[in-house]
Structures are given as structure tokens and as C-alpha cells.
Amino acid sequence: MATVAKAVCVYCGARDGRNPRHAEAAAETGRMLAANGWGLVYGAGDVGMMGRVAAAHQASGGRAMGVIPRHLFERERPGVPAPDNPRPRDIGRLVVTETMHERKKVMFANADAVVCLPGGAGSLDEFFEVLTWRQIGLHAKPILLLDVAGYWQPLLGLLRHVVEEGFAETSLLSFVEAPATVADLERRLRVLLT
Prior knowledge:
45% of the residues lie in helices and 14% in strands. The chain is α/β, with parallel strands linked by helices. It has a single domain (7-193), classed as Rossmann fold (3-Layer(aba) Sandwich), CATH 3.40.50. The chain has a six-stranded parallel sheet with strand order 4-3-2-1-5-6, with helices on both faces. Helix 1 (20-35) packs parallel to helix 2. The radius of gyration is 16 Å and the shape is globular.
């Protein structure tokens, strides 16, 4: 019987941020996923952390699924030649959704694990949605925050505070892992995806 390849949904910023370690970790994550034969499910963007993960994944022989809502597709046209991007990346499989909410559902449904790299409000929205779904028992997929340079420590502190103040059970904290390096992330994914 053939083994179905696993896929990892990566949420991250459409910007690189100020700390160069974040952008480096994004590219390293893309290479690591491809080296392990894991597919990439991502937001189909060509810029920032998102673009770095996808470009490194593709350059390393990985296959990706990009999911983008129509309003962003019409503005950004990922995978389509343009004056500012004459040689666009081959996304592999591009799915255009009608809404942002549908985008998140499609990304999640096509992945076996979720990894969050540094990002902004959109990445936080995506993280909290899958964390909430886990908390109410809608899934048991692994959720990992790549905590490069301690980026996610304030968020992890907030989650502990939520539990300490009685707004969530302590089990909430067990739904999230925060490896500090891509090597640590790889080790955990190898365990979680087998």
C-alpha cells in the first residue's frame, strides 16, 4: 500500500519583520519540509516570510498548495507573470477561495500539522482559530509555534495568563508546542507525523 505524503500548513507573515533570524528560519523551514518529503500548504503569497518558505520549499524539490482568497488573487496574481515578477514560482496547486474564512478552512483541511512562524495579525488570527478548534475538540492536529529568538514568548505568556485567570483549562497549554529552532521543529514533526 502506498504511503500518502504528509503536508504541513505554515502560517506566517507577508513581511520579513525586523529580525533577520526570522526570515532565515522561514527559508530553513521550507527546505526542511521538502527534505522530509512533506508538502507545504500556505497562503500563496510571494512576499515576506510566506514567500521565503515557499521559494525555499520549491527550490528544494517540494510541492506546495497555495490557497488565496479571490480579492487577494486579483491584486497579487501569484504564479502569473507580471512586470515585477516575470518568472513566478510554480505553486503546484493553487486554490482560489471566495473568502478569508474559506481560505483558512481549506488550508487546515489539507494539512496534517500546523506550524506558525513569526507574523502579524493574520498569523495570529489563523493560530487562534486552530487553537480554538482544538480546544473545543474539533481536531487533534499538532500546533507548533516556531519560537525563533523568543518571538512567541509574549503570546505563550498570555496563554498562561488566560489559564491562571480561569478563562481556560490547563489543557489549553498542552495543545501548543514551541520549538526554538528549525532543527527542534523537525524533530517534533518527525514524531508527530509518523
